[in-house]
């Protein structure tokens, strides 16, 4: 899909507030409501917009601790099964490097943390870090741009 500045602005606005009406979105990006609706539909059809979600305050829901669990080498299907059976897992990433998995979890307290981590310790070595403060989360993402070319190839970039 070819993107233009309108698409970029639409994506930025929807990432900032997915509840915008098409009328308000059109006003913000200087397009008519039918035009912006068609562009959003095309972005959805192309798989650029994959969904809309509500962000919740985990502390307000009673989750006092967020943590990251790093999991060493383990059988892929077993990890996926435990992740699927563990509602405390917010995000799960199969990664390269020393760890095979990085999980983000939300738990009520230290005992709850221990219970969740123990499920994964049965598979392989794990390492757990409690998240003390979040400094960036859900940052809007713009269109990817090619790297800047060095105008003088004889000089390092």
Give the SSE map:
Layout: H1 5-16, H2 22-29, H3 33-45, E1 65-71, H4 76-85, E2 89-94, E3 101-107, H5 110-121, E4 126-130
Antiparallel strand pairs: 1-3, 1-4, 2-3
Helix pairs in contact: 1-2, 2-3
Q: What keywords describe this structure?
A:
157 residues; four-stranded antiparallel sheet
Distance between the termini: 30 Å
Helix content: 25-40%
- Residue-averaged pLDDT: 92
**Which class of secondary structure composition applies to the elements?**
alpha+beta
Biggest β-sheet: count, sense, barrel? Answer: 4 strands, antiparallel
How much β-strand is present in the residues?
15-25%
Listing every helix as H and every strand as E from the N terminus to the C terminus, the arrangement reads: HHHEHEEHE
Separate helix tally: 5
- Spatially, the strands of the biggest sheet line up as 2-3-1-4
Q: What general form does the structure show?
A: elongated
What is the tally of beta strands?
4
Radius of gyration equals: 21 Å
Unreliable stretches (pLDDT < 50, length at least 5) are: none
Commentary on this structure:
The protein is an alpha+beta fold. The mean pLDDT is 92. β2 (89-94) and β3 (101-107) form a beta hairpin. The chain has helices at residues 5-16, 22-29, 33-45, 76-85, 110-121; strands at 65-71, 89-94, 101-107, 126-130. 35% of the residues lie in helices and 16% in strands. The protein has five helices and four strands.
Short description:
With 157 residues, the protein is an alpha+beta fold. It has helices at residues 5-16, 22-29, 33-45, 76-85, 110-121; strands spanning 65-71, 89-94, 101-107, 126-130. It contains five helices and four strands; from the N terminus they run αααβαββαβ.
């Amino acid at each position: 899909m070819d993107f233009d500045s309108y698409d970029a602005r639409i994506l930025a606005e929807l990432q900032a507030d997915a509840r915008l009406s098409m009328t308000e979105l059109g006003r913000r990006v200087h397009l008519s409501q039918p035009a912006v609706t068609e562009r959003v539909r095309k972005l959805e059809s192309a798989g650029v917009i994959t969904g809309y979600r509500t962000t919740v305050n985990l502390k307000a829901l009673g989750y006092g601790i967020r943590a990251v669990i790093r999991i060493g080498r383990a059988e892929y299907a077993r990890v996926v099964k435990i992740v699927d059976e563990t509602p405390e897992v917010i995000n799960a990433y199969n990664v390269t490097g020393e760890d095979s998995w990085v999980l983000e979890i939300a738990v009520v307290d230290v005992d709850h943390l221990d219970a969740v981590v123990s499920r994964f310790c049965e598979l392989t070595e794990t390492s757990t870090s409690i998240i003390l403060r979040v400094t960036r989360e859900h940052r809007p993402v713009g269109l990817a741009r090619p790297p800047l070319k060095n105008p003088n190839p004889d000089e390092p970039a």
